[in-house]
Design a protein that fits this description.
There is one protein chain. With about 130 residues, the protein is of the alpha+beta class. Helices cover about 20% and strands about 40% of the residues. The protein is built from 3 helices and 9 strands, in the order βαβββαβαββββ. Strands 5, 6, 7, 8 and 9 form a 5-stranded mixed β-sheet that branches. A 4-stranded mixed β-sheet has the order 1-4-3-2. Strand 8 and strand 9 form a beta hairpin. The longest helix is centred in the N-terminal third of the chain and has 11 residues. The two termini are about 30 Å apart.
Length: about 130
Amino acid sequence: MSHIALVTLVVRDYDEAIAHYRDALGFEVVEDTDRGDGTRWVVVRPRGSAPGTGLLLARAKDEVQSRAVGAQTGGRVGFFLHTEDFAADHARMVAAGVRFLEEPRHETYGSVAVFEDLYGNRWDLLQPAA
């Protein structure tokens, strides 16, 4: 086994999720395929990243899944977005309306700030220390 290929993120709506991840977070849409049964296979990943782990945006199909939207990690930071230019990416994301829950911190392991995605899932924007 060489790597984790996809991580599923349950969303309310495909198009609003695509718009958020593409426009606010700067991801690219790798695939958006209609599966013919009212569902789509939607994969996004950080723009410019090497092929590898992506997010599968899966629309909630029932009440149980709908309750999980935005709470998939129980309120903990569950996703870690690495950057090579923390200040530029933080500024771009703030300008795009991304909600940061704290001011940037500079720790021994790098520069970091917690933000929420469209649904309230918590992420770290992180530039690891050199």
